[in-house]
Amino acid sequence: MKPSFKNAGIKSRKHATTLNLAALASLAVPFALHAETAPEQPQKLPEVVVDGARTSDFQVSKSANDKFTAPLLDTPKSVTVITSEVISQTGAVSLTDALRTVPGITIGAGEGGNPVGDNLFIRGYNAQTDTYIDGIRDSGSQSREIFSLEQIEVVKGPNSAYGGRSSAGGGINLVSKTPKAENFTNASVGLGSAQYRRGTVDINRVVNDDVAVRLNVMGHDAHVAGRNEIKGNRWGIAPSVSFGMNSATKVNLSYYHMQSDELPDTGIPFNNPFTTGANVSKNGDGTPISVPRDTFYGLVNRDFRKTQTDIGTIDVRHEFAGGLVFRNVTRYGKSDNDYIWTQPDDSKGNTMLYGTVWRRANTRVASTDSLANATSLTGSFVAAGIKHSYTGGLEISRENTDRSSYLFAPGTNNPLTGTTTCPTSGAATLYNCTTIINPNPNDPWVYTRSVSPARNTILTNTRSAYVFDTVEFTPQWLLNVGVRWDDYRSTLDVPTYTLNGVTTAAAHAEVNANFANYQGGLVYKPSANSSIYVSYGTSSTPPGNDAGDGLDGLTAAVQNLAPQDSKNYELGTKWEVLPGGRLSVSAALFRSEMNNARVTAPDGTTQNVGKKTMKGVELGVSGNITKEWQVFGGYTYLDGRVADNGFVNTGTTAKPVYTASPYNGNVFPTTPKNSASLWTSYAVLPGVMVGGGVNYVAKVYANINNTKYAQGYSRFDAMASYEINKHISLQLNIQNLTDKFYFDKVSSPHYAGVGPGRSATLTANFKY
Question: How far apart are CA 619 and CA 469, in angstroms?
Fold first, then answer.
C-alpha cells in the first residue's frame, strides 16, 4: 500500500474497540456546517455517471449495483461500502475479516444443520443466503476470500426488492475486480506469526484500445493465533478479459476458482445452566467454560474441511444512443463443502455433571450447482418536467444441491453408556468422550468412515421481474420506488435407502410460492451535499430459503407454509462534509417487524403465527478529516425481541400440552445491543503512515432461552506502513494488540467460537 498526503491510506480489519466518542462527535459536524454555510437556495449535486465512483480512498459515491438508481447520498437506505483501501489497511484476508469493520453484523458459528462457512447475521436476522456477486446470488455454503474483490457493499434492512428471497436484515454484494484501461502489476508477499504466509498478484494488461485482461492469484497458509491446532491453506485464481472497452457493446468474461483445506475450530462449550431438578446446585452461569484459550476438543486425525468454488460469468453490456443501457449476465457456479468437525456438545449436561464433553461429529458432503441469467435496462428520461432514473429487469435461476453426511464404524456414541452421556472419558469410551481440562487432540481415534446412503437433493427454480425508479420532482425532493415479483419453486427428494438393515421410504416435499416486495423512500435535500429520508421496505423468506444447504431446510412440516413477511421503517440522513465532500457521515433510526414467523402453533403444528421485532439506531463515518487523516467506522444499537414465539409442549410426547412460549419477550440470539468499530490512519510523514482500529461488541446470547451468552469485548489493532520508493512499500499489522481472550461466534447454543489471539504480519507490497 502506498500512502499519500492526498488520500492517506487505511487498512481496516475486523478489530474491536470500545465506542469511540470521536466517531460520534463527528456526526454532529454536518449539522453545524449546514447552519453556517448552507446556501439560501439548495443546489443540485453534479450527476455521477461512473459506477463505483470514489470521492476518497474510503468513500464511494455510487453503488456498483445498477439496481440503485441514485447516488448513495440520495439512496433512502443504509448502505456501507468497504473499499479496497479499507480492506488493505486493516489486513483483512477473508470476507468475515472485512465485515467485522461494519457494526450490526454478527458472525455466526456452524452447528448441526448450519454448515461451516460464512454464517452472517445482519440486524439480528440470519443472512447466510444473502450474499451476491456483482448483484447475482452466490449459492452454496462457502468461506469467501477477498483477493479478487474491488469492494464490499453492505445493504441493511429488507433486501427482497433488490435480491428476491432474503432475510429481513439485509444483504452483502461483492464487487469483483475487472480489467482496466491501463497496465499495472500489483503484488504482495506477507509473513507473520502463527506461521502466516500469504501472497497475491494482480496483473492488468491492455491488449489494444478495445481489449484488456486481468489476472488475480492468491496463496494463503496460516494457523490461528492462540489456537495451536487450528490451521488452513487455500489458493485461488481469477482471470478476466474485457472486449469492446471503447465501443457501445462491452463483453466481460471472468472465471473464479478457490479451494481450501483446513482443520476447523470447535470452540469452547458453555457452562450448561440447570434451572430445575436435582442438579440445580451444579447450575452453570451460561458463559463459556473457563479454560485456556488453546483448549481444543477436536481430533486432529479425524477432523477436516475441504472446499472448492468455481464460478464462470459472461457479462454483456450495450449502450444505446440517449443513455439507455442493456445488460445481460449469465453465470454458472459450483461449490463443494466437505467436512468432519468436532462439536464439544454440552446438551447432555456432561460439562457440569462430569467435567467431560461428548465429541459430537458434525459432518457434511455437499455440492451446489447454480445457473443464473439476469437481463436489465437502465436509463433516464424527463416527462412533464420530472426526471426519472430507472432500471428494470428479469432474472431466472436454478440451484441444485446434493447433500449427505458421513457414517462411522463402530460409531460416535460412548460404548459404556450406549448414548452421548460421558461419566468418564478416554480409551474406554473410544475417545468419543474427553475431559474439559487438557483434552488431547491427538487421541488415537481410529474408525472407518463412509458416505451415508441418506442423500437429500434440493432443486430450486426462481423467476423474477423488477423495476426501480428515482423520481426527481425538484433538486430538493426525490422519490425512490421499486417493486419486485418472484416465482419461487423448490423441491426436496430423498431416495429410498437402507441403513443398518432398516429401509427408509423415499420422501418428497415441495413449495410453490409467489410473492411481491416493495421499496419506497422520500428524500429531501436541504443542500447539495446532504439528504434526509424516510423509507419503507419489505422482505419475504419462503420455506427452504437456503436452497438445501443451510439451517432453513425444506421439510414436509413447512412445505405448505407461506413465506415469512417482514417490513422495515427507516428515518435517516446522509451528509458529505468538509471541502470537496471528503467526509461522509450518516445516521438512521429504524424498526423492522416479522409478523408471520414460523413457530409451533397451539395444536403442535408449524404455522406462520409468530412475531419478531427489531428497532435500532445506526451511525456511520468514512473519508478524510484532513488530507493526511482518514477514518472509517460506525455504531449500531439493536433492540431485537421475540414478541411471539408461539407455543411449547409442557406435557409429554404421548399427551402433549401446548402453552404460550416462556421465551416471549426475550432478546434475539446473536444480536449485541451495542456494537461499534473505528479504523483510522494518519500520514505522519511523506511515505510513513500509522493506523489503528478498535471493535466493540456487547454481550451476545447464544440461544432464544437467553440462558447462554458470551460476554462483550473490545479488540484493538494497529498498523504502520513505510514507502521505500514509488514501487515498494512495507506494512506491519498487529491484530488483537492486547491479546484479548474473547468469543466472536455464538450462534450455536452448545459452544462459543474463540477469537484469534495476538498476531503480527509484515507485508511487502509491489506496484509497477
Answer: 27
